[in-house]
């Protein structure tokens, strides 16, 4: 028999020595099952947020004044099809009972409240619903104290709560990388000045600083203005920590041969920093950014929960938790805690993914 080494059809598996750094990274990341689970959960959450108008059966604002604190709708399977029963309210209470005989079939791709696809294309097509939306509503997570569908508001609120983390990280880490890279590369008085400012900023408790900055702005702002304001405040508070770490890495990188070679070739300081120093900090930045996103989400939640963030009737996970702050509501209508469960799952998924990325970046793994 011909030896395997001489047979061109036999392909040897790639060894560690033949893999590029990026291939090694993905190889180690695939071994992290918890990180994979976190990435899948986050992928589902962000896809649902992106297509919230289509997936949600209603808009975030309409009120059903006949069904305050409506319990979650149980979609049933009868006669070979999914049906939505009609719920009857007990007189004098906020308790509802499903009729055993009166129901309507659950339909897919139905017309309903208007929205904009990706915020651009007008549409009124929804993933599911019933023909009679008034008498046979589909409240998968029940309604709140104003008769608004919690499931729909949860999806619309995810657009704000989830995007704030991504935009805030992009701003704070971009600024922190540039400032920290310059401090570590140049050193001297500029390094001392930047580090003292960052240490001063880090010494102030984050929540109190966020509250103080928010209260300096006018109270009557639109939701879009408040959203932008929250992103700016959270980014301003968080850039110092990333700048300090990047500065320490830049102090080491600036003495390496490829940086000295770039300087000897006459490249400008800005080019050396942006093209040679900062790219070598990306492994840290990716992990740190992933682990920091929950901070931005929780920051928006706290501000909205304290009524200084997103305001009614717009939806965000923080403003939705206000109702859960009432002990009577929480005891009798536990479905009001749905946004809290969403926050918990999101933060946990980001931590899973961040831990997996950190282990994958580690060359010893």
List the topology elements.
Blueprint: H1 21-30, H2 33-50, H3 52-55, E1 76-78, E2 81-89, E3 96-105, E4 107-117, E5 121-129, H4 150-186, H5 188-203, H6 206-215, H7 223-253, H8 257-264, H9 269-277, H10 282-305, H11 317-320, H12 327-332, H13 338-361
Antiparallel strand pairs: 1-2, 2-3, 4-5
Helix pairs in contact: 1-13, 2-4, 2-13, 4-5, 4-7, 4-10, 5-7, 6-7, 7-10, 8-9, 10-13
What is the mean predicted local confidence, pLDDT?
A: 84
Instruction: Give me the side-by-side strand order of the main sheet.
Output: 1-2-3
SS content category: mainly alpha
Question: Can you tell me the CATH topology of the largest domain?
Answer: MetI-like fold
SSE ordering: HHHEEEEEHHHHHHHHHH
Please, how many domains? Answer: 2
CATH class of the largest domain: Mainly Alpha
Ranges with pLDDT <50 over ≥5 residues? 8-14
The best one-word shape is elongated
* CATH architecture classification of the largest domain: Orthogonal Bundle
Binned strand content: 5-15%
Percent helix, as a range, is 55-70%
Number of strands: 5
Rg of Cα set: 26 Å
For the largest beta-sheet, the strand count, sense and barrel status come to: 3 strands, antiparallel
Task: Compute the separation of the termini in Å.
Answer: 39 Å
The CATH H-level superfamily of the largest domain is MetI-like
